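Tokens for chain A. Residues wanted.
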């Protein structure tokens, strides 16, 4: 019936009714709590109105999250702008230490902006062992068995290091 008014929407406890329906209460359970509401009226209300309310609530939450992200983005841009200003000031006065600190802050702001915008993916730490590290581990496993191993380990590590760098090993 197209022009019919929803009795549930006009019920004085509509907020509590919607809360119960959203939290998974059956229409029969809600009808038991709120006398005078029929099971069919509650089913129509759930189908026609509660899903729309949930959709609007979801949209409102997304807008709120977008506003927070925009605010964070704006704040980081402001910090970056201040750091750029300090860098220019430090360069004019020849204060290289402050200039370097400003450069680091600018880099940090750029990284954060990249993460906020999605241009940079979250960091994944990958540990790659260089061949020299693998050699050290191999040597340690071979030498650790006897009591005089420390001296031999030191000599071998120095020799390996000298081989890699081309410098003579001091024994």
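Reply:
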């Amino acid at each position: 019936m197209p022009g019919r008014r929803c009795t549930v929407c006009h019920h004085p406890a509509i907020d509590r009714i919607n809360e119960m329906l959203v939290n998974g209460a059956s229409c029969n359970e809600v009808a038991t709590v709120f006398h005078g509401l029929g099971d069919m009226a509650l089913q129509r209300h759930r189908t026609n109105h509660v899903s729309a309310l949930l959709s609007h609530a979801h949209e409102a939450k997304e807008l709120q999250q977008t506003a927070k992200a925009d605010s964070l983005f704006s704040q980081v841009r402001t910090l970056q702008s201040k750091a750029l200003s300090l860098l220019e000031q430090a360069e004019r006065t020849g204060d290289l230490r402050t200039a370097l600190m400003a450069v680091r802050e600018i880099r940090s702001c750029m990284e954060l902006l990249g993460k906020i915008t999605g241009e940079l993916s979250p960091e994944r730490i990958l540990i790659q062992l260089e061949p020299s590290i693998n050699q050290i581990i191999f040597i340690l496993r071979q030498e650790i068995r006897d009591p005089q191993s420390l001296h031999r380990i030191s000599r071998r590590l120095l020799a390996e290091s000298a081989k890699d760098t081309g410098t003579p090993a001091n024994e």
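The CA atoms of residues 46 and 71 lie 36 Å apart. Residues 124-129 have pLDDT under 50 and may be disordered.
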